[in-house]
Structures are given as structure tokens and as C-alpha cells.
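Quick board copy: two proteins, each given as sequence then C-alpha cells.
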Amino acid sequence: MKLQENEKNKKLVDLLDAVQFVECIIFVSNAVRAQALSSLLKENNFPSICVHGHLKESERLLRYTKFKECENVIMVATDIFGRGVDFEKVDFIVNYDLPENSDGYLHRVMIEILDCYRLEELEDLELEDWQCHLW
């Protein structure tokens, strides 16, 4: 969904209320937005935690561990966890802000696709299957 900035928070809260998920990651553009959105989610009784590059590494690891152990089932993150991190239980991903460059966005989309399909099944996908992930 493409939304105006003033529509995003309400739509996100509505989605989180409506969608059943095990764990959710919400990608945002910067640390300030990560903190603000995580605070908003907590105010709305969602178990949220934020992770960004301005935190000390020890704090990022602590928050990562809490998320992996399902103490907080929603992680609001910058692209710091966009690559090379294994999230086994994540079944809902929101790009609250689109990355500044298309490579970052396409990388996220490919991770989502690869998490949904085993590699050997990718050869059997039709073009329409790929498009549903990209739009």
C-alpha cells in the first residue's frame, strides 16, 4: 500500500490488529523514526522493541535476543538487520519507509521471497508469483 505520511500510523495499527503473526519486523528509514514508532506501538499495547545503529552493540544484541525469544514480537528496525540475520519466526514484514535506493528494497523483497519458498521451488514460480511480492 502506498500511503500518505499522515495515514501510515493508523494503517499500521489496523494491520497489526488484523493480521495474525508470530513475529513482525517493521523497517523504517532512521533511528529517530524507529524510536518514535516503537513508542507509538507500545502506547497502543503492542509488544515492540526498536533496533538501530545508534545503539551500542551490546544493547543491539540484547534487543535482538529478546526478539528471538519472543519477549517482544514486533521489532522496529532500520536496515541494520536487513542483511545477514536469521529470523526464523518472522512471518510479517512491513516496509514502513522505503529504502533510499532500490538495491536495499529489492534485497528486502528477495529475503522475503526466499523465506517463503525453498530454493528448489523458485524455478517453478511464474512471473505473476514474483509480481505479487513486488507490488
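And the next:
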Amino acid sequence: MDLTGLGSVADFAKDMVDRFIPPQATEVEKAAIQIKIQELIDKREANLLETQKSVMISEMQQEDPFTKRARPMVVYSGLLFIFLVHVLIPLISFIFAKPMPGLSLPTDFWYAWTGVVGVWMVGRTVEKMGPGSTVVKAITGSK
């Protein structure tokens, strides 16, 4: 089991060598090219991690402490409202044998909350993919 990911990088580099280097190349040439590819992939991964790290550090160094927690606050508030309306109040009604009040969350809540959660999830996924990914390039319009 490859926990470090180095094996997968080495396998990828070997596959690249096998695919693009002519069969008449010697094993020494193939090994040198494979090592060079591995170094380039490792450098790319290090740059990607450094970029992600700098983005997280800059987000955490913002002056406004609420900005860091705004999206999670919306998500957790929505979860709290859902819990109250669909779990806690029905449970209290059941325990005290009282009829359930006619509570429901408005349709606009569901549209807004699922929209925020969906955008947040996609945004976090794209952030993890890094700035060079095709998705980020499509969103930002960069080439």
C-alpha cells in the first residue's frame, strides 16, 4: 500500500516514458527520462500544495473574523433550522402527546440553502483541485 503517493508518481512517470519514448531508447535513457518526469511531477505537486497553503493562510489572516465563518455559518444555521422543524419539535410533540404544529420550512429557504451549500461544496472541491485545473480555468476564463 502506497501511503506517500510516491509509488503512483513513479508509476505515472514510467507510463509516460513507455508511451512517448521510442522503443529503441536504451534503459539508461528511459530511466533518466523517468527520473526527470518524476522530479517535474513532484515540483508541480509541491507548487500546488504551496498555493493551497497560501490561499488558506490569506483567508485566515483577514481582518473581519466573521468573513472566515460566513459560509459555514449559513450551512450550519440551515442544518439547525432543519433539525428544529423536522426532528426536535416533532419529538417534543410525540413525547408530550400533543398534536404537531403545522410547521414547515418555506420553499425559498430550501432554494437558498441548497444553493449556498451547493456552491460552497463545489468551491471547496475546486479549491482542492488547485489553480491550474481545467475547472478553475473555465470558471475564471484563463487559458
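Board note added afterward: Residues 1-61 form one domain.
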